[in-house]
Each structure stands twice: as C-alpha cells, then as structure tokens.
Write a structure and sequence with these properties.
CATH superfamily of one domain: NAD(P)-binding Rossmann-like Domain
CATH architecture of one domain: 3-Layer(aba) Sandwich
Strand content: 5-15%
Number of strands: 11
Length: 330
C-alpha cells in the first residue's frame, strides 16, 4: 500500500512516516521548499516539494495512493484565527478536493483533544458537543477542520477518520518539550490550583502511531472521531517532576490560587492584544489550560472500535523520551 503523509517533517508526521517505512509501506510526503527533509530522504520517502495550497502538486502526490495521513497543521497559542484557518482548514479543503473520486481506503485526520471546551474534563467522551467558538485560533481551526473533513465523508464518500490525541510527547519533539525544559530551568513553572494534581492528557508518540494503523485497518472507524491518550492517569506534577528529575532540575513548587492565575492570564492576554503583540504573552489561556485544567478524557470508544490498548506505559515512555533529550544535551 502507498501512503501520503502531510507534515512528515514534523514530530508526529515524522514518526508516522518512519513507522510506515518499517512496515514496508511506500511513502509520499509533501514538504515545503524550506523544510529539512534529511530524515525522510534516509528513509527512502518520495518527497513532493511545495505548499498544500497547490492543488496540482497535491494531485501529483496523491497518484496511486491508498491512504492519506494528514498531520500538517499550523500550531501555536497566539495569532489571528484567520491565519490558523488558512493553514488548517483551507489547505485541508484543497487536499480533500483532490481526494474526491480517488480509490482511497482511508483518510486519517490528525486533530486534537483541544477541540473540546476549555474547562475541567472528567472522562469526557466523543458524545460531548464541540463549542462553536474557542478563545484561540488553533483550537477554533481544528474544530472547523474536523467539521470539513466529516462533511467530505458524508457528501463525497472520502473515508475520513478523525483522531484526537492529547499532549503528544516523545523523542525528537523540538517544539514543546524543549520549552518545558527551559521553563523548568528558569523556575517559571506554576501549578495554578490543586498543586499539580490535576490530569494531563498525555500520549506517547508510539502509542499514537499504533492508533493510526488501527484506524487504517478497522473499517468501522470510517466517519468516526476518537479520543486518544496513554490510558493511565498522569498528573501535571508527575509529568513535570519526571522531566525535572531527568534533567537534574528543581521541582516546581509555586501553586497560585486558580482564580488568581485566571485573572492574571486574562489581564495579560488583554494587554497583549491592545498593544498588538505578535508573540504570545507568558500568561495566556492555552498555557493556562495545559497547567490548570483537569484534562481527563475517555478512550473507551477507541478501545471498543479500534482495539486500541496503549502498549507503552508512562514510566517507560518518559524514560525513553528523557534519555533522548539528555543525549541531545551532550
């Protein structure tokens, strides 16, 4: 089978591309002209250089492809919603248009648990309605992307499966984990309320990769959305202290009241927007959600429909992850 992977130069897409090659799949990837494709070239991936908005190039990359895994996305915690919508919705539309009439067996859309409302979650499952409006452009665009993809399933028969992973971690993440380590080193990490005991919706990259292949193999997955986590309770404190211990850093200890953290965050965002800040302020609601809210989601549907059983435990996963970062530090 031939696979097309978008976002294959990124953390998640790169691991999925590697797993596909290991399983003997032929892999095509779409990459920007400026992207580093060295790892993909070593894997023998066929690379199509260009932008996802280029419909002609997208159609070329789709030739003789059986499965599409769409990981490409604009991510971040700041900026106009229009910028996120252009990357995460309109470029997805170009890809879906090119898929109409193709003999695909699966179109896997990598979404996020961030599509749910920014509130405490306690075993929230896929029956939860998604909010019409989010505070941040990324979450808003991911909701719209899901809606668009499932519309193409209903109207044109594109065999869409939506996967909603939580916080993905593992070796080779060069975006989020380095920032966490840097903040721990600076002593700027806080636990707003509950002293870090609330749930973090972690998923190790290999557990996510397993779920992707299950979504491709199981016919009952088509037209469905699935929550994905490691399947075990991991508190924010447990996660961050494991990172700190691995890197020889002090544990976070400051625990401001929830209401105070919310107020500081609201004021910080308001001032940043008034002055037209291009970068996210240190206190913003995306980071507040990560650190302050209980993020516990049910994966029972993925277990029932896909047979998803996370095979890597948190202790093993974080050990492997931090071993990689320590080797990079040297």
């Amino acid at each position: 089978m031939a696979y097309l992977i978008t976002g294959a130069t990124g953390f998640v897409g790169g691991h999925i591309a590697e797993a596909c090659v290991q399983r003997g799949r032929q892999v095509n990837a779409i990459a920007r002209a400026t992207s580093d494709t060295g790892h993909l070239q070593k894997l023998g991936v066929t690379i199509f250089r260009g932008d996802l908005g280029d419909s002609q190039m997208v159609r070329q990359a789709l030739q003789d492809v059986d499965v599409v895994i769409h990981c490409a996305a604009r991510v971040g915690d700041w900026g106009p919603v229009e910028d996120y919508r252009q990357a995460n919705v309109e470029q997805l539309r170009v890809l879906l248009d090119a898929c109409k009439g193709q003999a695909l067996s699966r179109f896997v859309l990598m979404s996020s648990l961030g599509v749910y409302a920014a509130r405490h979650h306690y075993r929230t499952d896929e029956t939860e309605p998604l909010p019409k409006r989010h505070r941040d452009g990324y979450s808003q665009s991911k909701v719209e992307a899901e809606q668009l993809a499932l519309q193409y399933y209903r109207d044109f028969g594109v065999p869409v499966v939506v996967l909603r992973p939580g916080f993905v971690y593992g070796p080779r993440d060069r975006a989020v984990m380095p920032r966490i380590i840097d903040n721990l080193r600076k002593g700027s990490v806080r636990y707003p309320g509950a002293r870090g005991k609330r749930a973090l919706n972690t998923i190790f990259i290999r557990n996510l990769t397993d779920a992707v292949f299950l979504a491709i193999e199981r016919d009952e997955a088509v037209g469905q959305a699935y929550n994905l986590t490691d399947g075990e309770f991991v508190s924010k404190r447990r996660f961050l202290e494991a990172v700190a211990d691995a890197m020889g850093l002090q544990h976070p200890s400051l625990t401001p009241p929830y209401w105070l953290a919310w107020l500081v965050t609201w004021c910080s965002e308001k001032l940043a927007k008034l002055r037209g800040a291009k970068e996210a302020p240190n206190f913003n609601f995306t980071r507040f959600k990560f650190m302050a809210l209980n993020l516990d989601f049910s994966i029972e549907k993925a277990k029932m429909d896909l047979g998803y059983l996370p095979r890597v435990t948190f202790d093993d996963a974080i050990y492997e992850t931090m071993a990689w970062y320590k080797s990079e530090k040297r």
